[in-house]
Every structure is written in structure tokens, then in C-alpha cells.
Amino acid sequence: MRTATRAILATTVAMLALPASAETLRWASAGDALTLDPHSQNEGQTHTIRHQMYDALIIRDVTGAFEPSLATDWGPKADDPNVWVFNLRQGVKFHNGNDFTAEDVVFSYNRAKTPTSDMKELINSVVEVRAVDDYTVEMVTDGPNPILPANLTDLFIMDKDWTEENNTVKVQDFEGGEITYATTNVNGTGAYKLVSREPDVKTVMVRNDDYWGRDQFPMAYSDIVHTPIQNAATRVAALLSGEINFLQDVPVQDLERVSSADGLVVKTAPQNRVIFFGMNQGADDLEADNVDGKNPLADVRVRRAMSMAINRDAIKQVVMRGQSQPAGMIAPPFVNGWTAAMDGESKTDLAAAKALMAEAGYGDGFSIRLDCPNDRYINDEGICQAAVGMLGQIGITVNLDAIPKAQHFPKITEGKTDFYMLGWGVPTYDSEYIFNFLVHGREDSIGTWNGTGFDNDELDAKIKSLASNTNLEQRNADIADIWRVVQDEQLYIPIHHQVLNWAMGDNVGIEVDPENQPMIKHATVN
Amino acid sequence: MLAFIIRRVGQSILVLLIVGLVAFSMFRFVGDPIDNMLGQERTIEDVERLRTQLGLDQPFPVQYFKFLEGAVQGNFGVSYRQGRPVAEILMERAPATLELAAVSGLLAIIAGIALGVFTAIRRNGFAAHTIMAASLVGVSLPTFLIGILLIYLFSVELGWLPSFGRGETVSIGDWWTTGFLTQSGIKALILPAITLGLYQMTLIMRLVRSEMLEVLRQDYIRFARARGLRDRVVNFRHALKNTMVPVVTVIGLQLGSIIAFAIITETVFQWPGVGLLFINAIQFVDIPVMAAYLMLISVMFVGINLIVDILYVFIDPRLRVDRKGGH
What we know:
Chain B: Residues 94-312 form the ABC transmembrane type-1 domain. The complex is a heterodimer. By secondary structure, chain A is α+β, with helices and mostly antiparallel strands. Chain A is built from 16 helices and 19 strands. The relative contact order of chain A is 0.14. Chain B has a two-stranded antiparallel sheet. By secondary structure, chain B is mainly α.
């Protein structure tokens, strides 16, 4: 009887598994991976493609929580806060059949720390990586680093022997135009193996049936064909005609068309990216305004009035066609330090805004230039156009200068704009990352994206102390304090959290990932 | 004669150098490539290091000179976006563009001449009027719109043809890939070829028609008819032959623009050719790719013009400037 049950069960499983075994995911997105070398190019789409074939020690699931991958568990060493211990998964094999051991982890991290690596900034606090035994690795940091694991989720593990045999130990010198073996070949431990790749044309992958997580994950797709399609209309047409069955970047204006089509669904989730305006409040006088000898943006009342003039719901309804989440703080909702209360602090109140402007001495308004990208964020230029009208209602005449991102972003980093749009994603899921880049005063390697001229030494010291504060309760209290200052100073004008839209055939089971990084091993076929 | 050719070649090189100079002076306004190349975590130090490494801290005439120096030796530098030598990327992309251009060129020539002759001979027929009216669409609608309309009709609504890409390709030799040998490759070629060739086709058709009407009015055609020759002989052997001189000139000149204007068609159909490469390069401020592409296209145009000029001299002796006297 037991044998019979088992036989029936086995047949059922086989029958369930069979139709899935020859499913191909035909996947399109706007961009392609720039290289396959795991430690070159710290860029979103490049990581997304690599994630299918390489594993990191730890990854994030669709809620943003840590998920054990090549490390089964990890934590700071009991007697030494400067050391993190990682226990590795046993019995894992690379695509070429080599065993995965601690030696590969040490090798990969050392490779990622070399000068040509693009990942070195993420682990610059790590001074040494050592193998304790075959399945235990210790990472020594230059001081206590409570959030180290958050920086490791895109750090892929290579096979030491394979890398050395193929003479590709040096990370591809991208700018030097080096083509190394690892640029075009993959030997990871990941759920899919590389079949072929033509950059900017097509990447074909096949399921790795020896994957360590073969039973743990659905892995319903036997093959993946990824095609980058830059033109938005062509992307949508390819989806509507059924040539692709999974599309990452659906233009918002086509969402209705796609979701009303037979056999297609659109799935939506908040993205790890918040859109906001920055204001130069540090300068004595602005170049982009018509007020002489004074900087209107230096007055917090003006900044508050501007925030109050922005009608975020109108932007959501009209510009974003419902696809955004109005924001009151410049942290995405899954980030440590985000609170619903602060995210709800943006209120539209024209009367109060006008009163504040009058109180600050700008009752007659002023004029200023708004710098805005036109090819970076979802409907970025449209948002800026809406803001022009809204700020006009409190007497601020805004001249919009919408330009391509390649021209826009240098203006911010070089301090050549007084009023600008910026979007920010937080790969570490911790507020420290936001403070380091956007709140800390501008120095060589910190505050690089803070174009506001805001520089508060006391706050800077507090931000710097976050990096090594192992008392998480105290650390979170400090984070809350820093946010309070950011909010009260109205350092930025938050607009909204971007929403991701993925479209797929109605039999494709993929959940939207806030990092815009689908992990195909999680996909099911319905 | 030799002096004429030497002078012509010299002028062509000068034109090329000026095109390059103008291109390089404009690259500064496209944006800062460094920004795309380094992630948001980069430090100011990284930016400076990379800027020096790429030579972007130097004034543009110096950058241009360095580019020329490399280009003369066949080295077009390294793509900022793909991190590979530009020459290699261009070689890899060229077959797609050339195949597309060849097919749409042939389509334009064959269909253009056939329809042109037809509308000239049956110039008062209903079909001819319909074709003439429809040809206005080809001349006046922008390429990207035609492409999207075709995609909408044949891919989305009818589901007959693919909306993007080149289908399966087959490698021939070391660096040529062809889509001619697979069914999906040929299917993928149809819509982009029509989109790209439509404008040239209508142009050729209208040209053939008006030239043909002109010729058909001439005396020798009347005499030919009077002699009782059959219509087919009169139309094709006598009339068409004489309309072809200006048509061939125009076709030659249009050849270059088919390749150059493939940019838009390639973008709409995600056709992996050099045009799409160029569009991507602009968005990423990939200066080496932009420079190499622009130089390549200008070499092509200048080369075609040079050949045409030299051919004219052979055809028309009056253009030989070294001849004394004359007109």
C-alpha cells in the first residue's frame, strides 16, 4: 500500500513537473547586462542577469528580507564585534562540477577588493577574509560593522580553480576595454547556466538541474531567453503579440492596454526608489533665481511653502496614472528608519504656503530654474512640468530645464544646480546609506550626491558614528533623530515612491521585486 | 585628369576631418560619460581617476587628435558602455545593417521601378491613381510611425511576423552572421525591410513615372509606335532604357542614406545593427562608438560622392578641368 501510494505520488509529481520541464521564459527589459564578470560594473540590470547564474552568500527575497543562499547562517563573532562569521552551504557544486568551499569565498572577496573591481566600495570596511575550515568563513572589518550583510547581496562567488585556469583572476578593466574570459563565460553555482550570449541582442540560459536549491525553489522554467528592447512601443508590441511572456519595463501609458489584453497580467509593487526635489540652501546667492544678494531657498519657510504647494495626489493621478505612492520622506518604505508617520508628513496647503512665503518676505514670489532629467525616472519630465504649475500658484515662477540624464546628474554632483530632481534607491535597506550620500556635508567620498549645500557638523558626526554602532537600539534612535532634523529642515521636497510594473502572461508566476531584480528560480508556471 | 582626382581626394579628406572636428566639439554637450560608467557609490576620487584615464580632462582638439591618431592605425578605442574595442563591436553589428539595407534597397528598386512603369503606362487607370495616392503615404509618414503601424498590424493583430529582433542567425566565416538561412531570420527581415525601403521605393517610383512620361512623349517613341512595334517592346526596350540614367544616379545616392537612416528602423524593430548601436551610444555618451560611427558614415558618403564625381568626369568630358579653353 505504501509503495502504491508512493508510486501514485511519484507519478503525480512527475506529471506536474513534466509540462513545466520544457517551459521557456521569454523575458524582455529595456537594458542589458554590461558584462558578465561578477565584480565589474555595479549596475542594476547587470546584477539581475548575473543573479540567475551566480549566487551570493546572502540574497534578498521580494519583501527585502535576507534569504540564505550560499551562506546558511551568519552573525557577528561572539567575542569580537569586528568579525562576522558565515557558515557555508555544503554539497554545492559549480556548473563545471567543482565543489564550492570556503576557499572560493575568500578568493572571490579578495578579487572583488582589487583596484579594477567595481564592487570594492561595498566591502571597503572588510580588511580580511579568511577560511576557518572548508565551510566557515570569517570577515574582519576595520571596526564594528553592524550592517555588513546588507552590502553582500550582489557579491557573487566564483570558482577559484576555474578562474585561475582560464587566466581571468584580474577583474575586467572595463574602462581599459579588456575582454577577459569571465566577461563572456560563466561558471557559477546559480540556478541557471549560460548557453549563449550576444551583448545587447540575446542571452540564453538553461536550468541547472544539479542546483543545490532544485527542491527548494520552483524553478519552473527550463530555459530563459533574455532580450533587451529599448523602444517602449516595440517592447509592448512584443508582449501583446506573445513573442515575449515577461516584460520588466512597461511604460505607464500602456498599462491599461496591456492589462486589458487577453492572457496578460500586470503586477505592481512599490520600488526601492523615492523621487524628490533638492534645493541649494547653502549658497549665499543663487545663480538660477532672480533674487539678488539673497538665497530664498536658505529660508526654511520658503522650503516648507514649496513642499506644501506640491499636490502629490494630483501628480499621482494625472502624471503617473495612479502608479506612484506619495511620499513624505526620502526613504523607500522597506528601509530601516522609515516610519509611516514621517512618510505622511507632506501636506498640500496653498493658503498656509502663501502665508509662509509672505512671512519669509517673498509674498510676491521669485523665479528659479528647475533642472530635471527626461530619461531617467518614470515620467520624470512630466512630474517637473506639474511642479512648475503648482509652484506657480504660490508665486514662484519656475523655468524648467529638462535634459538627458547624462547631462543632468553631473550638474548635481558638481554643484551646478540650485533646484533639481533626484531619485534614490537604497541597496543596503538602511537609512545610513541615504544619510551618507544625501545628508552628510559634501566631502571627497561622502555626501557626494548632497547638492543642497546643507552641512551640519553635529549631524555629520552622528551620521559617521552609525557605521560602527553595534548597539542597534541606540543606532535606530540616532537614525530617528537624524531623520527628525532632515524633516524639520525640509532638506528635500519628497514627491513619491516609484511603483514597479511587470507584465507577464497569465500563466507566468513571478512576484515583483522592489529592486527590479527578478530571480527566475522563484518563478512558477500556472 | 590625375590632378583632378588628387584634388577631389584631398577635398574629401578635408571634409572628413571637419566632420570629425564638429562631432568632437559636440560630444561635450551630450553629457558626461563618467556619470554612466560609475555607480552612485563612486567617490570624487574615482571620477577624477577615470576622467584622467580616459583623457576626458583634455580639451576637445587634443581628444580629437588622439582619436585620429588611433583611427589611422585602425584602433577606434574602447566602448564606454560595453568595455570592448569599438572596431570589434562595429564588425559584429555591420552584417545586420548591411543585410537589412541590401534587402530594403532591392525591394525599393524592384518595386519602385515596376510600379513606376505601371503608373506611367496606365496613367489614367484607377489602379495607377490608387498607387499614386498611396505613395504619398510613403513619402509623408515618418519612418518610425510606419514601423509601429506595421508592427501593430502584422505582429500584434495578425500575429504573422515578429515585432523585434533578427530571428535565428547563422554564422558564416569568422565575423559574418546571416539571417537569410533560417525561416525566423527571413520572417524577421520583412517588416524592417519594408519600413526602411518604403520611402526610397516611393521616391524611385515617382521618379521613374515622371521620367517615363517625359520619354513617352518624345518623337522616337511615336515613330516606334508608328512603325507598328508592339507596346511591350516600345515601353521596355526603348522608353524604360532611356529613363534609367537619372534613376540610377538617384539610386546610387540613396544607397548611403539607406544605411545611414537605418538608425530609426533599427530602433523601432530592435534590429541589432550599427544604427541601434549608435542610438544606445548617444544615450550612454559612449564617445568612442559615436565618433567611430559618425566617421564611418561620413567616409561612406564622402566615398560615394567621390566615386560619382570621378565617374562624371569619365562620362562627361566637359568636366575635365585640366582641359584648356572649352566653355
